[in-house]
């Protein structure tokens, strides 16, 4: 997709693929053939630049044909460079500018719980770790804890990279688990590329109903593509044709053994 | 009786802050629709949300001093099928959270209602940081956004009820200081429509928000000097009733715009764009000209910037080549 689009972000989406596979393939209560289903759980992508992995998860669970993935970032495509809700049924929000998804998730979770009487409807918000530099996130963190939004689950892609380098050099996040706990959140710290651990973490968070939960998912940026893994320079660029072939071969080989 | 029947020289009118009409309108909107909710950033009473909060405590949400969170939580609430009204001072919302409004309300096409109180110069003593003058320009360039600046508290009440029933995101501009209540419950209010409050043939005075009353009073002063001014009121800045302005301009051949905001990009900018495209007409734009406000008593500051009826009349008369119209 990204090679074809010739622009976009590579490392983040690859690292998050396992998380979205579990959510869209297992945890989310949703009906891809009926995007506005009123009983659905809600998934909000806050770090909108990782749109390719969301589009892939949606296509592979039946929201739209997988062939359409190759239209990413093209003029007239429903797959805008950053997700645009009004362009594609099934998208729950428009995102790209960082920091706003958790607030949207908090508002949504609060209405379904308090006005609709449906605390069983869960709102998931996917965030990047670089995104946690944004003050809006911490405003939302305070708000969700104040109202004890137990049906809100945040997921942080803790891959330690952002555009200008290592997250701990650019703007240190430090004791991230401690920060969220202090803000009043239930925290689960996992290997974000371990399928079983992801499933277990989501289940644990769903059982916590008196406070919001956050999953700190330690992922490997560029996961599965040896030349990309852990290299922050792959945050915002795309592979050449030759590099893409190597990446697909490596991911295919791993997929067959996993 | 409507505003058009009432002469400014009649006995003094009662005054009331425009924001108080919002408070009543929100309460009524809440009564009409149980999916109307309200969020505030630590300014409940000054933005008049306490009426709604007290009547519908389970539909009111206190966000604290966090304007970015204010509108983004509202975006999520709108996605969940509610009509959220958010309130703060205009200096902070949309002053501080413009991008969040654009991305999560306007581009995302959710009916978030951004209510900016204490807009304009009449915040007075608080000074330049709190005198929001750029909001009209900021909000009217945003696709999908409706922008409304009522002229008095009675109109603000109607505007609030109308916006609650409208599916679009919107910005409602309110003022702090008490201003004359010159419209009446009988005055019609239609989103997107301007109104002729005084018919005239020599000059078109186009106002929005608090300036419309000042223009009506200025028109009376001008009349005593033989100038027959037509006064138009545009509560809705976007979508703009261009036809009304252009047809009036075609008859009078001279247009004056007035606003308690920056004329660059603001209402004056809108009037200039509209006229130059549809009917080039001589234009005098009155408002704030590329500078910040300053502290002082509300009317004192408005006077200092030349936006009271007396000063407006003098400036208009001068532009028309008539002297001593300010007597």
Describe this structure in words.
The complex is a heterodimer of chains A (258) and B (327). Chain A has a single domain, classed as Rossmann fold (3-Layer(aba) Sandwich). Chain A is 38% helix and 13% strand. Chain A has 9 helices and 7 strands, in the order H-H-E-H-H-E-H-E-E-E-H-H-E-H-E-H. In chain A, helix 2 packs parallel to helix 3, helix 2 (11-27) crosses helix 8 and helix 4 runs parallel beside helix 5. The longest helix of chain A has 17 residues, at 11-27. Chain B has 327 residues and is α/β, with parallel strands linked by helices. Chain B has 11 helices and 14 strands. Chain B is globular and about 60 Å long. Chain A binds chain B through residues 42, 44, 84-86, 92-97, 99-100, 103-112, 114-116, 123, 135-136, 139-140, 142-143, 147, and chain B through 35, 37, 58-59, 61, 63-64, 66, 68-69, 72-82, 84, 99-100, 103-104, 107-109.
Task: Please give a handful of descriptors for the protein shown.
heterodimer, A: 258 residues, alpha/beta, Rossmann fold, 5-stranded parallel sheet, two-stranded antiparallel sheet, 9 helices, 7 strands, B: 327 residues, 2 domains, 7-stranded mixed sheet, 5-stranded mixed sheet, globular
